[in-house]
Amino acid sequence: MLDKTDTADSAELKEKLTNIIEKFIALAAVRLSDDVMARLEEIQRAENHPLQKEIYRSYFENLKMAREQKRPCCQDTGMLQFYLNAGTAFPYLNYIPEVITEAVRRATANVPLRPNAVDFFNEKISDDNIAERSPWINWELIPDSSEIEITVYFSGAGCSLPGQARVFKPSDGIEAVIPFVFDAVINHGINACPPLFVGIGLGHNIENAALLSKKALLRPFGRRHPRLKGAELERRITDGLNGTGMGAQGLRGSHAVMGVNIESSARHTATIACAVNVSCYMMRRGVIRLKNDLSYKLPTYAGETL
Question: Are residues 32 and 118 in the same domain?
C-alpha cells in the first residue's frame, strides 16, 4: 500500500510528465520537424513554375508566422495519435496513458487545438479531444530498455481521406500495388494539400498492412527500406508519381510527393495486402525520447527545449 509520501511523489511525477508531453504536443503543432522542412526547402528550389514558386512562398510564410505567434501551422489539428516504442524497464509505463490523455486535454485548451473527436453514435464533438479511444495510443515494447520514445502525429481529415487498403491474390503479383497506390494518391491525394508524404504497408491482411503504412509514413525522411527491392520500389513509385505533372495544391508542377516510404512484413502464401497512408506537406510528426530520470531529447527539432 502507498503511504502519503509515495502518493505525493506519484502525483508530482505524473504532473512533471504531463507538462513535458503537453509542451511537446504544442511544439509539434507549431513547428514542422527538421527533415520535413529540409525536404520542403529542397523542393521549393527545384520548382520552376511561377505559380508553384508562389505557393511555396506562401507555405513558408505560414510556417514562419506559426512559429513566431506560437500557433498551430494548420487549422485542422487533426486527431492526435501516439506511437510508443516503450522500454520494458522504463519505470513509469503505468502512467503513460493517463499522462498522454491529460496532456492532450490541456494542449487542446492552451495551444489551442481544434476539437475534432466525434462520437460515432451520438454525433457529439468532444470539446477537449478526449473521446472513445482518443487520443489513439499504439504500443511497441522494447526489451531491456529503460527509455521510451513517443511519436505524435496530427492526423488531419485531408490526410485521412485518401487512405486505402486492399488484399490482392498472389497471381496479381507485387506489381499490382503500383496502380493501386497511384489511384489513391492521384485521385484522392488532392484532399491532403500536395506535395505529399506517402506511406505504404505491404503485409498479409488489412490491419497488418494498415499499421505498417502508418509506420512507413512516420519513418524519418531519407531512410530507405532495408531490402534492396523495397528501396527500389520506393524509388520507382516516387519517380512515377512525380512524373504525373502534379505539384503543390494539385496544380501543375514537378513534385506530387515529397517522398515514399514502404514498410513490409511476411505475407500469407495466398495474399498480398497493401495499404496507403498519406500526409500533406505540413506533416506534423514529432519525436521525443525520455530517459528513466525524465531527461529528454527532441531528435526531430534541433535546438529546441520544452
Answer: yes
Instruction: Give start and end residues of each alpha helix (H) in the chain.
Output: 4-30, 34-46, 50-69, 96-110, 157-160, 177-182, 188, 206-218, 228-242
Output the pTM of the full model: 0.94
235 close to 259: Cβ distance less than 8 angstroms = no
Supply 301's cell numbers: 527539432
Only one residue has cell 501551422, namely 73
3-state secondary structure of 59: helix
Q: Which helix or strand (DSSP H or E) is residue 287 part of?
A: strand 285-290
Cα–Cα separations (whole angstroms), residue 133 to 82, 109, 119:
12, 19, 10
pLDDT digits (tens, 9 = 90+) for 56-90: 999 999 999 999 999 999 999 999 999 999 999 99
Domain residue limits at 177: 158-279
Same domain flag for 104 and 169 = no
- Cα separation, 7 vs 183, in Å, equals 55
